[in-house]
Amino acid sequence: MRVLALDTTTRAGSAAVIVDGRVLAEHVGDGTRTHAERLPRELLEVLEAAGMRTADIDLFAVACGPGSFTGLRIGIATIQGLAFVHQRPVAPVSVLRALAEVAVGELPVGARAGAWMDAARREVFSALYDVLRVAADGGVAELAEVEGPRVGVPLNVVARWNEAGAPQAVCGDGAALYAAVVPPGTTIVPAPPLAGTIGRLAPLVQAVHPAGVQPLYVRRSDAELARDAVAQPR
């Protein structure tokens, strides 16, 4: 299966081409420019590096969140447009699940892996998983969700995780940023470009019609919060 994957949840983001679970090409974006300025050119460049065209792709994959509201909208819209043109399905992949895949690394079955993304406002997006099966032959690990995507203050996340059982490893820029409060004994795994991992996870995700892609925001936008504040009776 030929997959074109895009991650716009961070400023730089990344794009990748994956064939039968193997990453053929992966490019990191130019974080000095907005995603709107760089797309879809960056997708065309990674396709060219893999010797392919958009018409060759069987499945389009996109990071559905959490992350920057603007980045998510631009990334999803770009992938939707390409998928509409070529009448292909889209696999929306959670970035937290992708980070957990990286965190698993050499962990054994029965271990626990976590994901922490910087959510600004001194908070992190987080999720926690148990390892049911380790990856083999370039495949991906089978994980069971212990705690689904949430957003909160790092110390509060640590308190919940310590109560449930802290992970052996955690991956994400949030873990690096708040390393001082990561549970003792938990290894912090640096977050790599994620498009390749998103593309490898895509065949395992329920693919949808391009119009059916829904962003995973986790947290409400500032506009929504401001609107509700104005609507509150005084």
Task: Break the fold down into its secondary structure elements and pairings.
Layout: E1 2-7, E2 14-19, E3 22-28, H1 35-38, H2 41-49, E4 59-65, H3 69-86, E5 90-94, H4 95-104, E6 112-118, E7 124-133, E8 142-152, H5 154-164, E9 169-171, H6 173-177, E10 187-189, H7 195-201, H8 222-231
Parallel strand pairs: 1-4, 4-5, 6-9, 9-10
Antiparallel strand pairs: 1-2, 2-3, 6-7, 7-8
What does it look like?
This protein has about 230 residues and is an alpha/beta fold. The protein has 2 domains: about 130 residues, ATPase, nucleotide binding domain (Nucleotidyltransferase, domain 5, 2-Layer Sandwich); about 90 residues, ATPase, nucleotide binding domain (Nucleotidyltransferase, domain 5), CATH 3.30.420.40. The chain is built from 8 helices and 10 strands. The strands form 2 sheets. Strands 3-2-1-4-5 form a 5-stranded mixed sheet, with helices on both faces. A 5-stranded mixed sheet has the order 8-7-6-9-10, sandwiched between helices. Strand 7 and strand 8 form a beta hairpin. It is globular, with a radius of gyration of 18 Å. About 0% of the residues have low confidence.
